[in-house]
Amino acid sequence: MASVTALARALLFAALAPSPAFFGAACGGAPQAAPASPLAQDVASIQASLVAGPWRLVDYRPDLSLEPMLQALLAQQVRSMIVRFDGRVMSARSPTIQIARPYSIENAAGLAFDLVAPDPQGSGPMSSRCQMSADGMQIAFRAQSDPWPGTGLLRREGP
Predict the structure, then answer these.
(1) pTM attached to this predicted model
(2) Could you tell me which CATH number the domain at 2-18+37-156 has?
(3) Rounded distance, CA 90 to CA 134, Å?
(4) Residue 158 has what pLDDT?
């Protein structure tokens, strides 16, 4: 059922490069590392929020109407799908879907970023434009890749 897999991928990329490591001054008088660029700082901040805890899919609205069976499948995912980020791989789990895939953060600017993940079947990357809330507890996203473009919201679980 390719449609179920496509739906899961779209929800996952909503649900969005491993963050660069930042090193403080070295001991023993070694020179300090150059300060991180604004882009690197934005990526590190976004990554820190992503890995801070699990995220629940609380809303997803596809741009196109779905056939009844796929609409029912989507309804099962909203509020039950949990997305986790570990700095390299994101995973999504619900009662009916389990997916894991590498991801990267691109085009970061403040709290806005693109979450990009390659398609393991080689049909091109899945991409979502994301906006993190100022408190780091929500991510509004726009899934941009076919066949499931749409908008949604992830909310972080816990503190």
Answers:
(1) 0.77
(2) 2.40.128.210
(3) 22
(4) 81
